[in-house]
Specification:
Oligomer: heterodimer
Number of helices of chain B: 15
Largest sheet of chain B: 7 strands, mixed
Helix content of chain B: 25-40%
Number of strands of chain A: 0
Number of helices of chain A: 13
Largest interface: A-B, 42 and 52 residues
């Protein structure tokens, strides 16, 4: 494998390009939708004021103009104002209010899954518990979320305007255990350890009195990181649904509501948030791959 | 183990109790407001929220129906009836403490007259107002475009603060005012993600006794009622008929009438070739069995006393002075008459299905989704009746957003029939519903219906100098519409609110709901 660096470099390029490409794609989609975007935003408006509003919203000169204006404002932290979800509210304010909840939900969920992976690798999860986790994992997140919000609304906090820690904790737990997220991780880690553990070099290492995990890790780390990234991205997607159902004031819910209400500044900003996270993960994966190749295996040619 | 479990349950119960009690009076609305700027109000929710935050110059007292004002001290006509001089009350302040002056009244009128304000509400007011002049700090001279027989009735707009817009009269819907408005009303409102929180602001003309309120979007009506019964919220603005018995059965809750003057209809797309013939529309009117529909969707049996649902034959509720009692209501189906009308209208039945010019007629029927809560399955029942009569059909639920964006703006032309509801205050102005869409008129004309006869009658109503002239014009309009049928008129359905009995003095005003909010008390 002479060209070990190709994959990490592709990832690096994607990580940099995605935050620019995805908003462009969305801007294109706004114009691809049926009807004229300018009149879609306020169909019953008319007169000079309507023309001014179209100009203010950068809808008067096509998708490229809309995109460049949005990007240049975004650089200075200005994401514009909400058109329809909370008309007149600054999108940056809405985004700020949602980022914390989404990150808490996501990180708590991810932490539970990573803890599951670690405990499995150490062999600390008993078989009966694994069976239990697999059983609960068969339930869809949607069903668990609906049940959770029913309990929350009727018994805990029926008139909540603000998101509470209870909602976030419920959401994170569902995120981790539903749809086989945790059980899939546990099974995956088990399988990797079992398969890799049968290799000759590991057997020899064990005979030498060394630990299994420390020997398999350098060989499996790049692959594992890739799997973790994919798992984290699917967690982020699932978090959107959970935010919607559990009424968590996160970015995912903003994205869905913004899309339903054709609030494009909001949609652009929320999508940008997710793209940045995705890019950061790609970046992390690329750096880890390079690091493992150069410093752990010390023989880049061997890395696939 | 048992003790531990009980302790946990007790702790959970205590936490729940602590969380659900507080100073705030919480209630469920049908939806969240689309905008809190009165110039961009689109729904009844928006109107109700505006009533809490702002003051109208003039309004009808919910107690004796007289025209009164909290802002105007004296008024007098001038310039031969084309202008009115208003002397404002002293001591009234905006929520930030800035004094309310004549400049604010003139600013609001100027903003409505400014072509740079792309508001459909403002566009309509441009037909009424010619300008406004600040005579003194507390005196404004309002000029009208013509002499109106009831000029003070025309001053029912919400007054907005000049200083919030720095005097710029071109008001955009994107201004932050739409989200954090400032008024002179009893409460200051702040829109959040899940609702609107209100805080009382004492003023010379308002002394609200409820210090805090919160509006939340009601979801499933059953959940709303259960939450109300558990005291999770203290009120629900609209309780659908099927759930009213549940509310009535509780000693802790009371049902309150809300006079919304709302009526239900099936709008017919007269621009579709197969529906352009009046006889076809009359046939549809004969196919629709209103008695059966009412029974199946609202649960009212034939001949039931005190029914919440009253049939109508035109665009007014039966208690309206504009309702023409000479026009008969079609209560049940008349399929024989429908058959002959359809044939006369060019329809042919082939293999049990109606065809028009050789093509089977497939009716695309929509309903405003929120109405499906009030009258469950109405869409399916209407569709079933048309299906049984030999029409192919497709059913669609229309979201509130789509309704505001497409239906009321006349852009839902792919539909054949749309089931909806209109609500009115004391002034039942149906001109925007039926006038040809031109020059800012016909702003709510769903299928861009156009009829010279109807436009003439609407102009007669607009130009009426006396109540009798206005009534005559609308009586005739009722008759013409009942014959031409751009709408199949269904019924008036009572609107009821439910409140905890701990909420006292809660007089509900017609249409605006919160006009007398100062008398509301919440005793915990």
């Amino acid at each position: 494998m002479e060209r070990w660096w190709i994959r990490p470099v592709v990832r690096l390029v994607l990580a940099v390009a995605l935050p620019f490409l995805v908003p462009l794609l969305i801007a294109g989609m706004i114009w691809a939708m049926p009807g004229d975007p300018a009149s879609n935003v306020c169909p019953d408006c008319s007169g000079e004021g309507m023309l001014q509003m179209i100009q203010d919203r950068n809808l008067d000169q096509g998708p490229l103009h809309f995109y460049t204006e949005w990007m240049s404002s975004m650089v200075s932290g200005d994401f514009g104002r909400s058109w329809s979800f909370q008309s007149g509210e600054e999108v940056s304010y809405l985004l700020k209010s949602g980022v914390g909840f989404t990150l808490k939900l996501f990180l708590l969920g991810a932490l539970l899954i990573l803890a599951g992976a670690f405990l499995t690798a150490r062999g600390w999860i008993p078989r009966w518990l694994k069976s239990g986790i697999r059983l609960v994992g068969l339930l869809p997140g949607l069903v668990l979320s609906l049940a959770a919000i029913a309990v929350y609304t009727v018994y805990i906090n029926p008139s909540a305007m603000e998101t509470t820690w209870t909602q976030v904790a419920m959401g994170a737990l569902i995120l981790a255990i539903a749809d086989a997220a945790l059980s899939g991780t546990i099974d995956g880690v088990d399988e990797v350890i079992e398969t890799e553990g049968r290799r000759r070099y590991v057997q020899i290492a064990i005979l030498r009195g060394e630990g299994t995990l420390m020997n398999i890790l350098p060989n499996t780390l790049p692959g594992l990181v890739g799997q973790v990234r994919a798992r984290m991205l699917s967690l982020l997607s699932a978090a959107i649904i959970i935010e919607m159902i559990l009424k968590i004031n996160g970015v995912g819910e903003l994205l869905v509501v913004g899309a339903l209400k054709q609030d494009f500044p909001l949609v652009m900003a929320c999508t940008f948030f997710y793209v940045v996270i995705s890019s950061m993960m790609l970046l992390l994966q690329a750096v880890l791959e390079i690091g493992v190749a150069l410093f752990i295996r010390k023989s880049p040619k061997g890395v696939g | 183990m048992g003790i531990k479990k009980n302790s946990l349950l007790a702790a959970a119960g205590l936490s729940a109790a602590l969380l659900t009690t507080g100073q705030s009076l919480n209630f469920y609305e049908e939806a969240l407001p689309t905008s809190m700027n009165p110039l961009y109000a689109k729904s009844m929710v928006d109107t109700r929220v505006n009533e809490l935050v702002f003051d109208r110059l003039y309004f009808h007292s919910p107690i004796n129906n007289s025209l009164v004002s909290r802002l105007v001290d004296q008024w007098q006509m001038s310039e031969g009836g084309r202008a009115m001089q208003l002397t404002l009350k002293s001591g009234v302040k905006w929520h930030d403490g800035t004094p309310f002056t004549a400049a604010d009244v003139c600013f609001t009128i100027d903003a409505m007259l400014d072509e740079g304000t792309p508001s459909p509400i403002a566009a309509k007011q441009r037909e009424v107002f010619a300008g406004c002049e600040v005579k003194e700090e507390n005196i404004a001279l309002v000029r009208f475009t013509k002499i109106f027989h009831n000029p003070r009735n025309r001053l029912g707009f919400y007054v907005m603060p000049s200083h919030s817009f720095e005097g710029n009269t071109a008001i955009s819907p994107d201004h932050e005012f739409s989200n954090r408005p400032m008024g002179t009303g009893p409460l200051k409102g702040n829109r959040g993600r899940r609702g609107v929180s209100f805080n009382a602001v004492p003023n010379a003309h308002h002394q609200a006794k409820v210090p805090q309120m919160s509006l939340q979007e009601g979801a499933d009506p059953l959940v709303q009622v259960r939450t109300l019964q558990n005291n999770g919220v203290q009120g629900i603005i609209t309780v659908p008929p099927p759930y009213r018995a549940d509310v009535s059965a509780s000693d802790e809750l009371s049902l309150k009438s809300y006079d919304l003057r709302s009526w239900w209809f099936v709008a017919v797309n007269t621009n579709k070739k197969h529906l352009s013939d009046k006889r076809v529309r009359q046939a549809l009117n004969s196919i629709v069995d209103r008695t059966e529909l009412r029974k199946l969707s609202i649960g009212v049996e034939e001949g039931e006393q005190n029914s919440p649902c009253e049939f109508i034959s035109g665009p007014f509720v039966q208690t309206s002075p504009y309702y023409n009692r000479a026009v008969e209501v079609q209560e049940t189906a008349d399929l024989d008459s429908a058959l002959s009308l359809l044939q006369a209208g060019g329809m042919r039945k082939v293999g049990g299905t109606w065809h028009y010019r050789g093509e089977p007629v497939n009716l695309k029927i929509g309903i405003k989704a929120s109405l499906d809560v009030e009258a469950p399955d109405l869409l399916s029942q209407v569709s079933n009746q048309l299906g049984a009569a030999g029409f192919q059909r497709q059913q669609h639920k229309i979201s509130t957003d789509e309704w505001n964006r497409m239906v009321v703006t006349g852009q839902a032309e792919d539909y054949d029939l749309i089931i909806g509801k209109w609500s009115f205050g004391l002034v039942e102005d149906v001109n925007p519903l039926f006038h040809t869409r031109t020059g800012g008129r016909g702003g709510l004309n769903i299928f861009n219906y156009s009829s010279t006869a109807v436009d003439t009658l609407l102009a007669q109503f607009d130009g009426a100098r006396t109540d009798t002239q206005a009534q005559d014009a609308y009586h005739e309009l009722h008759e013409v519409l009942a014959d031409d049928l751009p709408y199949l008129f269904l019924w008036k359905l009572d609107t009821k609110s439910a409140w905890q009995t701990s909420v006292r003095g809660n007089m509900i005003s017609a249409y605006y709901y919160w006009t007398d909010f100062d008398s509301w008390k919440y005793i915990q």
